[in-house]
Amino acid sequence: MNGKKDSFEIKISSATKAKLPLAGKRSGWIGFSCKAWIWNVWEFCNEDVNRVAFAFKVGVAVLLVSFLILFQAPYEVFGASIIWSILTVAIMFEYTVGATFNRGFNRALGSLLAGILAIAVGQLALCTGPVAEPIIIGISIFLIGTVTSFMKLWPSLVPYEYGFRVILFTFCLVIVSGYRMGNPIRTAMDRLYSIAIGGLVAVLVNVLIFPIWAGEQLHKELVDSFNAVADSLEECVKKYLEDEGLEHPEFSKTVMDEFADELAYRKCRSTLNSSAKLESLASAAKWEPPHGRFRHFFYPWSEYVKVGAVLRYCAYEVMALHGVLHSEIQAPYNLRITFKSEIQEAANQAAELVRVLGKDISNMKKSLKTSLLKRVHSSTERLQRAIDVHSIKFTKTLPKLPCAHSSTPSDFSNQLADLDENNSIEKTANPPSETLPLARTESYHETMRKQSRRLHSWPSREVDAFEEDGGLNTDILPRMSALESTAALSLATFTSLLIEFVVRLDHLVEAVDELSKMAKFKQQGF
Q1: CA–CA separation, 357 vs 230, rounded Å?
Q2: Alpha helix positions (H), 364-441
Q3: % of the chain at pLDDT higher than 70
Q4: Are 367 and 222 in a shared domain?
Q5: 42 Cβ partners below 8 Å, 6+ apart?
Q6: Buried-exposed string 113-128: b where 16+ CB fall within 10 A, e elsewhere
Q7: pLDDT at res. 440
Q8: 3-state secondary structure of 205
Q9: Rounded distance between C-alpha atoms, residue 489 and residue 443, angstroms
Q10: What are phi and psi of 421, to 5 degrees?
Q11: Which of 372, 382, 44, 61 is nearest to 209 (CA)?
């Protein structure tokens, strides 16, 4: 407080500046650590072994088409145009089989259309004579470039963007080289043969050598998302019920989401950002032939995307629960443990249901989830009844102090001391019938001091530092009363978010059941 009425000065300490690593201060090869680099590469490969397989397959495919140039016999047959096969492999080869088929279709269709257009325009220009021929070719290049660039921006044609790009550069190369060589038909056919060879090699290598199926990747990604949401829910509720509200992350760390001890939280956050990845994998999986456990045509890959969307709808509630957990205003610990058993039971039942749904998708089997869903609803109803019974605790406010004009820390402390003395006299005159736990019989003076960091300033500060700024005046007391009520309501916010999560589970169960019907999952036990 800076001495002016109704004016407060809150000093926010600047975040600690991260120390730059010693290696970052060095330049050149002096700061390079070969051991650290090798370890990073090893960890990167361990995260996904398919990365190594993909790199190996690309090398094999490029080597195979290079033999057509390195050996004299095939080079005499195909000539210098065979270089297009190497270009096709490098551009067309994708991480998954489905993505390779998709890009191969765009490559083949684009090259075919470009070749036909190049032959037609070349023959037309050849008939007009040497003066008009370059003019017609130049105009055709301008028109093709303009039309293809505009069409690939059309929303419904965005999936075929690569095909329009292929049409553009294939047409330009074929028409220009045919003009200089004097035979556009021969030039176009040589290019198409080379592109076909490169595309065939890329498809065969990708399918026959350590195939990486987009469908399997999509299936695994969705199952991992289910487990991540369940783990994050249990982790959040556990920390909320065990935390005594005394030690919390600093404000700078809170806004940056730097919770190093919450691994499940980071996994849940990645689930929220998985929408584009799931859609990309589903789009690639549609091009794949029946394989592995997905042995029938027209497999409903789009349903995986729908289930992922509903799961993210539930994950938003988990992230909101984490926001309450790390908020600046917290409910007193003795109020939180009042509903500990009900909150814990509801969270455990909900997390178990999410895991069961993920397990059903993983095993591709249908199980009866009616009994489990009923237990989740029953635990939630018990939590709601407990909140209704103890609803008075959410509206409790500060008791009125006898001295209404104190403005110094000593006066306010005397008021609190008198209040505690009055409370002790009342307890002596009317002794309780049962001995309550120490946490429940704690005086309000001590409870207020423990929560002062969250009630009196933002960002939080210790009570001694707050009093050193100039003490409390009478205007602060109503604010303290309102803040105490707000702190109690944070528990109501937490429980309401948990109940909302359970309500959204009904939609998740329906989405998984729809997927199991369309994908023809087997009944549990068969």
Answers
A1: 11
A2: 370-389, 409-429
A3: 71
A4: yes
A5: none
A6: bbbebbbebbeebbee
A7: 41
A8: helix
A9: 20
A10: -65, -40
A11: 61
Query: Are both 240 and 168 inside the same structural domain?
Result: no
Q: What is the pLDDT of residue 442?
A: 46
Amino acid at position 445, single letter: H
Instruction: Flag residues of the chain having pLDDT under 70.
Output: 1-32, 182, 243-262, 264, 390-487, 525-526
Residue appearing with tokens 């987009």? 214
- Which residue's structure tokens are 């500990």? 340
Measured at the CA of 332, the angle between CA 327 and CA 337, to 5 degrees, comes to 110
Report pLDDT for 175: 87
Contacts of 377 (CB under 8 A, 6+ apart): 502
Radius of gyration of the chain (CA): 34
Structural domain for 299, as ranges: 214-244+258-397+479-523
Please tell me the predicted confidence (pLDDT) of residue 421: 53
Helix or strand run (H / E) with residue 107? helix 97-127
pLDDT of the residue at 6:
43
Do 335 and 491 touch, CB atoms closer than 8 A? Answer: yes
Rounded to two decimals, the pTM is: 0.72
The tokens for 174 are 């074929």
**Residue pair 408/471 in contact by the 8 Å Cβ criterion:** yes
Asked if the structure places residue 281 within a domain, the reply is yes
Q: Please, are residues 92 and 204 in contact by the beta-carbon 8 Å criterion?
A: no
Output the six-digit token pair for 433: 């019938």
Q: Which two tokens stand for residue 295?
A: 């042995």
- The SS3 assignment for 443 reads coil
Sign of the Cα pseudo-torsion (307, 308, 309, 312, in order): positive
Phi and psi for 224 in degrees, rounded to 5?
A: -65, -35
Q: Is residue 488 part of a domain?
A: yes
Strand partners, 227: none
In this structure, is residue 486 part of a structural domain?
Answer: yes
* Cα distances (Å, whole numbers) of residue 27 to 17, 31, 41: 22, 6, 22
CB neighbour burial string for 187-210, b if at least 16 within 10 angstroms, e if fewer: bbebbbbbbbbbbebbbebbbeee
Distances (CA, A) of 187 to 81, 110, 116, 173, 410: 8, 16, 12, 10, 97
φ and ψ at 523, to 5 degrees?
-70, 140
- Residue 119 shares a structural domain with residue 146: yes
pLDDT computed for residue 11 by the predictor: 42
Query: Would you state the pLDDT for residue 59?
Result: 92
Question: What's the confidence (pLDDT) of residue 3?
Answer: 42
Listing DSSP states for 303-340 in one string gives HHHHHHHHHHHHHHHHHHHHHHHT-SS---HHHHGGGH
CB 214 within 8 A of CB 99: yes
DSSP state of 435: -
